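C-alpha cells in:
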C-alpha cells in the first residue's frame, strides 16, 4: 500500500518538528556555580560559550562539533577562531544567539552579568554559570562542565593530569627559599595582583612570595617607590595588553637598579593567557612561573 504524498509530507514535518526533543534522551537539572538550578537537555547538542576559558575547556573535552558559538575573546585553540562569534562579555549579539538555537549556553560569573544570564533564560536558553576563583576552583569547574556536557571521563583525565603536574611543581620547590615576586598586569597605572587572585595563587604554588598579597584590593595599584620599598627579587610582566610596547616597558624597569630583580636581571615576560584564564592551560602558567622563580630545579 502506497502512502499518499500529502500524508507523507505531514509525517515528515511532524518528525522534523519533534527532532530537537527526540535528539536528547532527557532533561536533567544541574546546580551551577552561583547556586542556580539549570534544566539542561541531556546531552546538549548545540553549545555556546561566553568566555575564552570555557571555550578552552569545551574543546579539551572533545566538543568541537557541539560548539556552535563563542565570544569575540575566544582565540584558543585555533579552531575557536572559526566559530560564530556572539559578542563580548557584556555586549551579546542576541540575534545571533537566537539564530544558532543553542540548547545550552555556558557563562562565567567573572564577566557575564546577572541581567544578561536572566535575559538568555527568558529567551528560553538554559544558561549554566561557572565561577572559579583559584586553581582548585578551575579543577572543580572542569569537573562540573564534564558532567553537564556528558564528558565525565574526559574531564577526569584533564583534572588528574593537572593535579599531577601541580604536585610536581610543589615537590620541586618545597623547602626552598621563597623569592619575593612582583607581577605586573597593568602599565598605566601600575597594577598588580593581590590576595584572592589567580596570579597570587600561582605565585604561592610556584614557591614564591607575592609582595602585594596583603593588599586589601584583589588588583591593587602600586607606585614604583612602593615597589622599590618592597624589594622584589623577581618581576613578572603579563602580556595582558596585546598592543603594549613591552620592550619599552622592560627598558623603563632597567633604570631602577636599586630593585633586586632589576639589578640581577630577573625580569620576565609571561603570556597573560596562561595565568589569567581559568582554563586547563593555567597549569602551563604555573610551570612557567616555577621555572622563573626556581630555574635550578627545572633544568631537565
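Residues out:
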Amino acid at each position: 500500500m502506497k502512502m499518499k504524498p500529502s500524508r507523507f509530507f505531514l509525517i515528515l514535518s511532524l518528525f522534523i518538528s519533534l527532532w530537537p526533543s527526540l535528539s536528547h534522551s532527557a532533561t536533567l537539572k544541574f546546580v551551577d556555580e552561583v547556586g542556580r538550578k539549570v534544566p539542561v537537555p541531556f546531552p546538549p547538542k548545540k553549545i555556546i560559550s561566553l568566555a575564552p576559558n570555557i571555550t578552552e575547556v569545551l574543546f579539551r573535552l572533545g566538543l568541537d562539533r557541539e560548539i556552535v558559538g563563542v565570544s569575540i575573546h575566544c582565540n584558543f585553540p585555533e579552531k575557536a577562531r572559526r566559530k560564530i562569534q556572539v559578542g563580548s562579555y557584556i555586549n551579546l549579539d542576541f540575534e545571533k544567539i537566537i539564530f544558532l538555537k543553542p540548547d545550552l549556553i555556558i557563562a562565567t560569573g567573572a564577566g557575564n552579568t546577572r541581567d544578561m544570564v536572566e535575559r538568555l533564560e527568558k529567551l528560553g536558553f538554559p544558561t549554566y554559570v561557572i565561577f572559579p576563583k583559584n586553581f582548585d576552583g578551575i579543577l572543580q569547574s572542569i569537573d562540573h562542565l564534564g558532567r553537564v556536557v556528558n564528558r565525565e571521563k574526559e574531564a577526569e583525565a584533564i583534572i588528574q593530569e593537572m593535579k599531577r603536574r601541580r604536585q610536581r611543581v610543589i615537590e620541586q620547590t618545597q623547602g626552598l627559599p621563597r623569592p619575593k615576586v612582583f607581577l605586573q598586569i597593568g602599565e598605566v597605572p601600575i597594577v598588580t595582583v593581590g590576595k584572592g587572585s589567580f596570579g597570587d595563587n600561582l605565585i604561592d604554588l610556584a614557591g614564591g612570595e607575592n609582595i602585594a598579597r596583603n593588599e586589601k584590593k584583589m588588583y591593587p595599584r602600586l607606585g614604583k617607590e612602593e615597589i622599590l620599598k618592597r624589594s622584589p627579587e623577581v618581576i613578572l610582566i603579563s602580556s595582558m595588553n596585546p598592543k603594549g610596547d613591552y620592550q619599552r616597558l622592560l627598558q623603563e624597569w632597567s633604570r631602577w637598579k636599586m630593585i633586586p630583580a632589576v639589578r640581577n636581571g630577573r625580569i620576565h615576560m609571561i603570556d597573560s593567557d596562561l595565568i589569567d584564564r581559568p582554563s586547563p592551560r593555567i597549569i602551563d602558567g604555573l610551570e612557567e612561573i616555577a621555572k622563573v622563580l626556581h630555574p635550578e630545579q627545572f633544568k631537565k
